[in-house]
C-alpha cells in the first residue's frame, strides 16, 4: 500500500476478505485503515464515487484505453501502408498490387497531407529568410513539381 500511496500521491488502504479466514486482512494497519475510511465517509457521495474504483470500472477503463491504442495503431499502420504505396509508385512508376478505390482515396489524402506539409514548411523557410511569401505557400516557382505529382496520382487512379 505504501508504494501505491507514494506512486499515486493518495492515501490508500486495503481490506481483503479471505474465504478461509473470518477476519479480514488490513493494510497498512487497522488504525490507519479506520482513519482513511473515516475521511472517505466524510466526503459527499459524489466525491466518493469519483474516488472509487472497482474491478468493473477498472476493466472498462483498460478496455477503452486498449481500444484507443488499437485505433491509433491501425491508423498508423494504414498511413505506413499508403506511404509505402506512394513511394512504390514514385520509385517504379506503377503500383504492383491492385489497389482498391479505398486505397486510392487514402493515398490521395496522404499525398494532399504531404503537399500541405511541404507548403507550410516552404512558407516557414521564406518567413525565416525574410523572403516575400507568395500565395499558396510560395509554390509559384515549384508548381511544376506539384503538378507532376498530381498527374501521377491521376494516372494511378485511371489505371484502376
TrEMBL record:
Source organism, top-level taxon: Eukaryota
GO molecular function, one term: DNA-binding transcription factor activity, RNA polymerase II-specific
GO biological process: positive regulation of transcription by RNA polymerase II
Gene3D superfamilies per the UniProt record, alphabetical: Transcription factor, MADS-box
Signal sequence coordinates: none
InterPro entries, per the entry: SRF-like_MADS-box, TF_MADSbox_sf
Protein name (record): Agamous-like MADS-box protein AGL80
